[in-house]
């Protein structure tokens, strides 16, 4: 194995880690972990996904706005994200990525209850640009589109 191949393997693992920090930060309402996944000037565009389920949501930028919008909205929910099918193209200190993210959302405190009926299950397609920041990769742009949705979209609203 040559050095370029080894570096590509290391980069792909670190890029996947950026996505996992993003998802885990949301799942646990952990702003610091979530922040660690994004560049300062990050843009997160959920409009392709939210429009399909009848919700209006602005494009979020920079990171401070992303955090202030998503951590209080998603963080309190009983949520779990599963990231799969990660595909990356690395070019020096930049990368492009696509993957699936399945996200199950329940109102706060209702996830573990067997009798629950309100939920929002989403299978989303993520398309992202990332940049190397020292040893860490961070998301600079993330666009989220919905492949399919099941449930009640109002679960995703702050007063849902």
Write structural notes for this entry:
It is a single chain. With 160 residues, the protein is α+β, with helices and mostly antiparallel strands. The protein has one domain (3-156): Nuclear Transport Factor 2, Chain: A (Roll), CATH 3.10.450. The protein contains 4 helices and 5 strands. It has a 5-stranded mixed β-sheet with strand order 1-5-4-3-2. A hairpin with a 2-residue loop joins strand 2 (78-91) and strand 3.
In total, how many domains does the architecture comprise?
A: 1
- What's the average pLDDT? 95
Helix percent reads 25-40%
**Percent of residues in β-strands:** 35-45%
Q: Alpha-carbon distance between the termini?
A: 52 Å
Uncertain stretches of 5 or more adjacent residues: none
The profile of the biggest β sheet is: 5 strands, mixed
Q: DSSP helix count? A: 4
**Second CATH tier, the architecture:** Roll
CATH topology: Nuclear Transport Factor 2, Chain: A
Going by helix content, strand content and strand pairing, the class is alpha+beta
- Counting DSSP E segments of at least 2 residues, the number of strands comes to 5
How are strands sequenced across the largest beta sheet?
1-5-4-3-2
Rg result: 16 Å
Main attributes?
elongated; Nuclear Transport Factor 2, Chain: A; alpha+beta; 160 residues
Summarize the structure.
This protein is an alpha+beta fold and 160 residues long. The chain has helices at residues 3-28, 31-35, 47-52, 63-74; strands at 38-45, 78-91, 94-106, 120-133, 136-151. The protein has a single domain (3-156), classed as Nuclear Transport Factor 2, Chain: A, CATH 3.10.450.
């Amino acid at each position: 194995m040559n050095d370029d191949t080894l570096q590509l393997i290391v980069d792909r693992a670190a890029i996947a880690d950026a996505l996992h920090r993003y998802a885990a930060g949301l799942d646990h309402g952990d702003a610091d972990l979530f922040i660690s996944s994004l560049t300062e000037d990050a843009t997160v565009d959920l409009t392709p996904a939210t429009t399909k389920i009848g919700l209006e949501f602005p494009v979020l930028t920079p990171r401070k706005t992303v955090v202030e919008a998503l951590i209080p909205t998603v963080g309190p929910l009983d949520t779990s994200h599963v990231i799969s099918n990660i595909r990356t193209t690395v070019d020096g200190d930049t990368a492009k990525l696509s993957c699936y993210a399945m996200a199950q959302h329940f109102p706060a405190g209702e996830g573990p209850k067997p009798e629950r009926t309100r939920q929002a299950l989403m299978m989303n397609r993520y398309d992202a640009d990332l940049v190397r920041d020292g040893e860490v990769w961070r998301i600079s742009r993330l666009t989220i589109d919905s492949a399919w949705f099941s449930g009640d979209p109002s679960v995703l609203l702050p007063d849902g």
